[in-house]
Each structure stands twice: as structure tokens, then as C-alpha cells.
Design a protein that fits this description.
This protein is mainly α. 69% of the residues lie in helices and 0% in strands. The protein has 11 helices and no strands. Helix 8 packs antiparallel against helix 9. The longest helix is centred in the first third of the chain and has 25 residues. The N and C termini lie far apart (63 Å).
Length: 257
């Protein structure tokens, strides 16, 4: 007898989507490293001084274009992790543990993030974007209390979203973290209909927070082939990948640049 083969569903699983998101983050970290190491002093100049510097050294323009392009690619990670956050919230059997794991990743990421972005162990200008994922989960928790789509509940959801963004601003989250909150809300609220369209519109709405999100809708070419499966990756890999990436880049920035 022939053995029955289990057919895998077509499309991309959650683990593959996460891998794509991590690749986009990796590309963006390279762009940030270029901007800080090769363009740090250049970016402090006035516009006239920058123009004069680029005329004297055309390589500066090339480095600036590369850095901007790489960080635009990084923005494509935002919709992916917002999508996975909304999916994870809907599927988790223990929200408390899920939130504790995300909080742990945010805390583990903070010192490497500070070293990379600010060159200090404790840099208070911005906090890492994983805190934006944590705030997104808190927001969705409150959204569950207003599931029915009537006028009062819709108004409450808008107010809760504004409050979450204001908290992100008060806590001085990385702009990508604030953008993820808006994207997660849109992808959750429109999870039954028009999800992709809502996500693209959310990218446009948050572009004043970070102009790089004008490139983020490209990630929906990947998200649209999500097959609804979790995938077979390791939870430890999922949660430790980002802080480890930050730590590696922080060590490069501190010791080699």
C-alpha cells in the first residue's frame, strides 16, 4: 500500500512570515548602522552644509540613498509583526503569558537597542519598538470589551487607539513602535473583511510618524498568501531573535566603528 502523505496547505505559515519580518529588520539595522557610522556628523549639518558636503564628497549621497532605502525595507517588517500580533492575540489560550513573553522581549531588547541607537547603556531618547507590540496587545484586550459594532463602541475603539498612541508618545517609543499599534488595530478591526486594504490605508495614515512606512504596503504582497497555519518554528527562536540581532549590531557599533 502506498503511504498517505499529509499535504501541506499552500501559502506561507506564520513562522515563514516571521522569518520575512526578521529579514526586513536585519536589513533595516544595516541601514541604521550605515547612517550612524558613516553619516552621523553629516546628518547634524544644516541643509546648505549638507549640499556643500555632498558636492565635495559624492560618496555621501550614495551612502545616504543606501541607508534610506534599507530603512524603507525595514518598514515592511511593521505590517508583518502587526499582523502576527493580531493573529497571536486571536489564537492564544493564555493572554497573560503571551503578554509576559512580549514584555520580556521588550526588556531584553532595551539595552542592546540603547547601545546601538544612542551609544549608551541607558539612552532615554527612545525605547525599542517591541514595547509597541506590548501596547498593541493591551489595546486589543480592551477592544474585546467593545466587540459589537454600534456607534458607541466604534467611538470607544477610536478613543482607545488615540490613547494607545499617546502612551507610545509619552513613553517615547521608537516611531516604528507607534506605527505598529495603529497597524495592529486596523488588522484586528478588519480581520473579517477588507483586511489588506485596511492595512495599506493604515500604512499611509502612519507615514507622518515615519515616512519609511510609505514603502510598508509592499509587505502585503507576502501577507496576502498567509495560509492560516502557525508553522513549526521554535518559540525561543521567535522571542530571542530580535534582541540577539540588536546585541550583535550594538557590539559592532561599539567595538568596530
Amino acid at each position: 500500500m502506498e503511504r498517505l502523505r499529509t499535504q501541506r496547505p499552500e501559502g506561507l505559515s506564520g513562522s515563514v512570515l516571521r522569518a520575512w519580518g526578521l529579514v526586513f529588520l536585519l536589513v533595516g539595522l544595516v541601514g541604521r548602522l550605515i547612517r550612524q557610522s558613516a553619516l552621523g556628523d553629516f546628518l547634524q549639518l544644516t541643509m546648505d552644509e549638507r549640499m556643500a558636503a555632498m558636492e565635495a564628497d559624492p560618496q555621501l549621497l550614495s551612502l545616504l540613498v543606501i541607508a534610506v532605502a534599507l530603512q524603507a525595507v525595514e518598514a515592511c517588517a511593521g505590517p508583518i509583526f502587526a499582523f502576527l500580533t493580531a493573529e497571536g492575540f486571536g489564537r492564544t489560550s493564555n493572554l497573560k503569558n503571551y503578554m509576559l513573553r512580549v514584555a520580556g522581549v521588550a526588556l531584553l531588547s532595551e539595552i542592546p537597542y540603547d547601545l546601538l541607537m544612542g551609544g549608551k547603556v541607558f539612552w532615554w531618547d527612545y525605547q525599542n519598538p517591541v514595547f509597541g507590540v506590548l501596547l498593541s496587545l493591551v489595546l486589543l484586550y480592551f477592544y474585546q470589551r467593545f466587540e459589537e459594532n454600534n456607534g458607541k463602541n466604534i467611538a470607544m475603539k477610536v478613543l482607545l487607539l488615540v490613547a494607545a498612541v499617546l502612551w507610545a508618545n509619552m513613553l517615547r517609543l521608537d516611531p516604528f513602535g507607534a506605527c505598529v499599534i495603529v497597524l495592529t488595530a486596523a488588522l484586528w478591526l478588519f480581520r473579517d473583511k477588507f483586511r489588506i486594504l485596511a492595512g495599506i490605508m493604515a500604512c499611509v495614515i502612519v507615514s507622518p510618524i515615519s515616512m519609511f512606512y510609505l514603502a510598508a504596503p509592499m509587505s502585503f504582497l507576502i501577507l496576502r498568501v498567509y495560509n492560516g497555519e502557525k508553522g513549526g518554528d521554535s518559540r525561543w527562536v521567535n522571542y530571542l531573535a530580535y534582541p540577539v540581532m540588536l546585541l550583535i549590531f550594538a557590539m559592532v557599533a561599539v567595538y568596530f566603528i
